[in-house]
Design a protein that fits this description.
By secondary structure, this protein is mainly alpha-helical. The chain has one domain. Helix content is 73%, strand content 4%. The protein contains 17 helices and four strands. Strand 3 and strand 4 form a beta hairpin. The longest helix has 41 residues. The protein is globular, with a radius of gyration of 24 Å. The C terminus is likely disordered. The structure holds zinc ion (ZN). The site of zinc ion has 4 residues, from helix 10 and helix 13.
Length: 425
Amino acid sequence: MNIYLLIILIILIGKYILDLTIEVLNLRHVSPELPAEFADCYDAERYRRSQQYLKETTRLSIIADSLLTPLIVAFILLGGFNLVDTFAREAAEADIWRGLIFAGILFMASSLINIPFSVYRTFIIEERYGFNRTTVKTFILDLFKGWVLAGLIGGIVFAAIIWFFATAGSMAWLLCWGAVTAFQLFILFIAPVTIMPLFNKFTPLEDGELKLKIEEYARKQDFKIKGVFTMDASRRSTKSNAYFTGFGRFRRIVLFDTLIKRHTVDELLSILAHEVGHYKKRHIMKNVLVSVLSTGLMFFILALFINNRGLFDAFRMSHTSIYASLFFFAFLYGPVDMVVSIMGNLLSRRFEYEADAYSARTYGQPGSMIAGLKKLSADNLSNLTPHPLKVFFTYSHPPVLERIRVLDQLRGIAGGSKKELLTSD
Ligand SMILES: [Zn+2]
């Protein structure tokens, strides 16, 4: 058996077994008793519903995985990639166009296969739990906008990579790294004013108590208020959230309209202060740095596998090509990618604690932050007791109970005479 084929099958099946194990452990880890911290925002019925919701979403993702993994394995073993490549070679002469056709067909196929699962999740599960506000029209429009964006952004990046590897010899990986990074930064910079408005409407805060208090807080923290927006999240879901995005002049803090509707002004201010914390602690730039370094690592390893005959044999390919190398390499890169993502999540969870501490220290109401987090979890039916393995592999935020416990300690300090502990970073 081809050694690359063996490695890729082990990676695919190993990942499937690992994911399945994590999901099953996570379901079994659910506590039958409501954690005491949540006694004031859940009743027995709501808590039972949150567990039922977890069960249904987990079951859907297990079913999807159990269907898609054998499908991918069969596609590899039956020479599906060669079939697509034969079509691309007949349709175009130039390598870049062949590559775009090859990638386009595979992208559309995987996108279409995923639609039924996404429909089921949105219109059956989310609907059943009262979250769904997405109309069929919005759903279809989102899909098309996603395709156009992926075609444009993905197409430009994919074509550039093919071109560099075809022309730049041993420097190709470095040039790819530089070009992709520059493009990534450009997209990240313009996304808040070009891409995100394609999906949602962003409005500057309305006049009122909330705006006044935010202005007062922002003045003290030397943060520009014009970067705070509300977003019409309610057109898709009743779930609520807030986030900080972008850098430079287009950076902004976004509060979901659903969040503003259900939280008190103090809770909203604590949450906003948390987002300001992400800005002040330069978390976005740190995340970008990590992503730039991991992109460099990826291109460096990719260069070693371009036009590797053994790898192409594993996929039953008649011809080697740069564009197909990118796809086949992605299969091999899976485990490295997983390690990168685990480290990224680890870092992100640390940033969340930092932002929570920033909110507690600068707005001075850890109690409101706790109340806000509890309400968010209850409204979104979040899993209060995820399995540590699930957290380790997939959580970008710490489990809410751990955040509450850490904030509670800060509250103890804030209430006492040791305020100086809160003012040191
Ligand atoms: Zn955060």
